[in-house]
Automatic annotation (TrEMBL):
This is ATPase AAA. Coiled coil: none annotated. It comes from Devosia nitrariae. It comes from the Bacteria. Signal peptide: none annotated. Transmembrane segments: none annotated.
Length: 179
């Protein structure tokens, strides 16, 4: 049995990284770190890049976690500390339709505490364009960073595959380390 104590969940926005993190936390007992909550400052203000790198380094130094988020600029930091990578490599259609549904149903809300204080769900055309273009403009860069990862990799190409992985995980015992 592979030890799973530090898990990176990566992929295009809308793939369901935060939902997957919560589901995995229910199975494993590992704490979830939603990077969006740490990145976005009130009013959707971005942090200073050096401060952001430091924040992610501090989060990754924790002994146990499931960390979800895109943030390609810190993927190498997270993978260096992780033992497991779950890559949600879903189609543009799946991701874009999920972002659209999430946005329209959650307008004005904070997405279950996943977002930073003062950041409510909103219509954001540049973000939606990012989702539509992710596979063409960012996916190869992320795959290159992931290719150097030495831990256990689960690359899921559909929500159905991810559901099968969760069923498999639910059948295996996870020792929850005492803190």
């Amino acid at each position: 049995m592979n030890l799973m104590e530090r898990v990176v969940i990566a992929g295009c926005p809308g793939a369901g990284k935060s939902t997957a993190a919560r589901r995995l936390a229910e199975i494993t007992g590992l704490p979830v770190v939603h990077l969006d909550r740490h990145y976005w400052q009130p009013g959707w203000t971005r942090p200073d890049p050096e401060d952001w790198q430091e924040t992610v380094s501090e989060l990754a130094a924790r002994p146990r976690w499931i960390m979800d988020g895109n943030y390609g600029s810190t993927l190498n930091l997270r993978l260096a500390a992780a033992d497991t990578l779950i890559h949600l490599d879903f189609s543009t259609f799946v991701c874009a339709s999920r972002v659209l549904r999430r946005t329209l149903t959650g307008l004005g809300g904070q997405r279950g505490g996943e977002l930073g204080d003062g950041c409510q769900e909103r219509l954001d055309w540049p973000f939606f364009q990012f989702v539509l273009n992710y596979r063409r403009t960012r996916r190869d860069r992320d795959l290159e960073v992931m290719s150097g990862f030495g831990g256990t990799v689960y690359r899921m190409e559909s929500p159905r595959q991810l559901e099968s992985l969760f069923r498999l995980f639910a059948k295996r015992p996870f020792a929850v380390a005492e803190i």
